[in-house]
Amino acid sequence: MTAMDYAKANLTGLHTRGYAIDNLNDTEKARIMYLCHHLGLADAVHFIQNTIPEEDVVVTNKKGKKIVKQNGAEKLLTGQIAKEKAFKEFVNPNDGSWVEGHRAWLEDFMNRAITPSAFACLGGKKTQLGNEETKGALTDITEKLKK
Q1: pLDDT tens digits, one per residue of 46-70
Q2: Out of the domains of life, which is the source (predicted)?
């Protein structure tokens, strides 16, 4: 599967779950594609709905083995940056919330890193994408999609 196949499959997955993907502009779609790539489709849905818990949700399966049912914000954030840095720069300023800290980090990262205009040819489309990037913050996009 190519990267574009994976991105398209994730958008299709969101669409089949009732998310209005077709209403997004190109920059918003690119950021949602990356969100799904970064978190996986299941956690991306939880991010959109703002239902990622502080800590992992662990359950016991039929064989008595404990398994992670849902990833928590602490694990998701410390999987990207060191725990001390995560707490100091993102969790502590967000009232000690790993959920809000993770959202703030991912918002900051994606708004800096996912810039479709950098890959567009000069002209109208490049300008359009650049304008979309300044207005297309990740949490603004997820609020549009939230059910």
Answers
A1: 999 999 999 999 999 999 999 999 9
A2: Bacteria
Cα first-last separation, the chain: 30
Distance, in Å, from the CA atom of 72 to the CA atom of 47, rounded to the nearest integer, reads 11
Give the DSSP per-residue string, 39-63.
H-HHHHHHHHHT---SS-EEEE-TT
The average pLDDT across 87-98 equals: 97
> Shortest CA distance to 35 belongs to which of 52, 18, 55, 56?
52
Q: Show the tokens assigned to 139.
A: 């949490």
Cα distances (Å, whole numbers) of residue 37 to 29, 40, 45? 12, 5, 12
What is the predicted pLDDT for the residue at 140? 84
**How far apart, in whole angstroms, are the C-alpha atoms of residue 133 and residue 83?**
29
pLDDT of residue 135: 61
The first and second tokens of residue 133, run together, are 């990037």
pLDDT at 96: 97
Q: How far apart (Å, rounded) are the C-alpha atoms in residues 53 and 133?
A: 29
